[in-house]
Design brief:
Elements lengths: L1 E6 H11 L14 E7 L2 E7 L3 E8 L8 E6 H10 L5 E7 L2 E6 L2 E8 L15 E6 H11 L14 E16 L3 E21 H10 L6 E7 L2 E6 L2 E6 L8 H4 L6 E6 H12 L8 E7 L2 E7 L5 E7 L7 E6 H10 L4 E6 L6 E5 L2 E8 L5
Antiparallel strand pairs: 1-6, 2-3, 2-5, 3-4, 4-14, 5-8, 6-7, 7-8, 9-12, 10-11, 11-22, 12-13, 13-14, 15-20, 16-17, 16-19, 17-18, 20-21, 21-22
């Protein structure tokens, strides 16, 4: 039975949209498949890993008649379409448990699995909270904090991102226990306080999929799920159970030792010095004295790098150590011209902010070097 006849790019684009979450090898073979459904002129593509589900659709004027659906290996079909010539017409037909593809003189047969075995999320349309923002705003917000998420931490709630709607703001927080990033977006309307923890995978997928555009993205909090709707894409994710740390207690206030510095200059200086840092601990010493910041890295081979920056500082001297990767991460993900660095003492966390901007804060714990 004929499923689709369309231009290669018309099929490849929606397939690439949904297959980012698909694993090639899975304990459940059906999770390596994409569900392709045809309902009259609309063809939808659905992929899931049981935690996240992505759906997108295209209109096909050649498709008509009764509804029809098939599940087929997502990455294989994507690789085949990608390898075909541009602008070639592709026809996909189903025959029992096979998907047959034709494009020019190319022919391919792929195994299918039963549609009824595909674990689609239930149609849960009742949202408990809903906001709409610009795609570029949400994308920028995620980029400001996502690098601070933990990876494979036994405290599973740290392997994600806190999304908090409160009053007239959308707040996002990420921490791995050694550093914390906080960012805020002002909303048009006041919201009832609600918070969820998004899984790491969905945060990275959103950052990849969202456009740098004025187009809207709708964020809806459902029962144990979050739904993002944008650019003909619907992304639904389960939320992480658990209690996220109280970020307000972590963010220091009242620090007196502080200076402003050109972000790019500090980034390049740290990058040079870090070449000679210890590969395992990645330590860097910041030695702050009047009008001067000295940056020192050394390793077990007794190699050492020293850099100096002129800064406007006239307070007590300070010698403090950090994991240089944590400093490079924040400097790489900010776009401001300058950053403000604030310190307590050698045993207290440092605070990195953007001058004149209360909507971003980055806290990093010191380390002994």
């Amino acid at each position: 039975m004929k499923l689709i006849q369309a231009d290669r790019d018309m099929l490849l684009k929606p397939l690439q949209t949904v297959t980012g979450i698909v694993e090639r090898r899975h304990t459940l073979p059906i999770l390596s498949n994409v569900l392709i459904e045809r309902k009259n002129a609309e063809i939808s593509f659905v992929a899931t890993d049981l935690e996240i589900q992505i759906t997108t659709s295209v209109q096909d004027s050649n498709a008509g008649g009764e509804g029809h659906a098939v599940t087929v290996a997502a990455k294989k079909l994507q690789d085949i379409l990608r390898a075909l010539p541009d602008n070639v017409q592709v026809m996909l037909e189903t025959d029992e448990n096979r998907l047959q593809g034709k494009a020019g003189k190319s022919r391919f047969n792929l195994q299918t699995l039963p549609v009824e075995d595909f674990p689609k999320f239930p149609e849960n349309t009742e949202s408990q909270a809903k906001i709409t923002v610009k795609q570029k705003e949400l994308k920028h917000l995620l980029f400001l904090v996502q690098y601070a998420m933990a990876q494979q931490d036994i405290r599973y709630y740290l392997n994600g991102l806190l999304l908090l709607m409160e009053e007239n703001s959308l707040k996002v927080v990420a921490t791995d226990g050694h550093r914390l990033a906080f960012a805020l977006l002002v909303l048009d309307a006041s919201q009832e306080k609600r918070e969820v923890i998004l899984p790491r995978k969905v945060v990275l997928e959103l950052a990849r999929q969202l456009n740098d555009s004025e187009e809207p993205v709708t964020v809806e909090l459902l029962q144990n799920q979050v739904r993002f709707t944008f650019s003909n894409v619907v992304l639904i994710s389960k939320v992480v159970e658990g209690k996220f740390p109280d970020y307000n207690r972590v963010i220091p206030t009242g620090y007196q030792k502080q200076f402003e510095v050109n972000r790019l200059l500090l980034l390049q200086t740290l990058q040079r010095a870090s070449i000679l840092s210890n590969e395992k601990f990645r330590g860097v010493r910041l030695i702050l004295t009047t009008a001067n910041l000295r940056i020192v890295c050394s390793n077990s081979e007794q190699e050492e790098a020293q850099e100096e920056l002129e800064v406007r500082y006239d307070g007590e001297a300070l010698d403090i150590g950090f994991n240089v990767t944590y400093l490079l991460d924040v400097l790489n993900n900010l776009s401001s011209e300058t950053v403000q660095c604030s310190f307590g003492d050698a045993n207290s966390s440092a605070l990195i902010t953007i001058p004149g901007n209360e909507d971003f804060k980055y806290v990093v714990m010191p380390m002994r070097i």
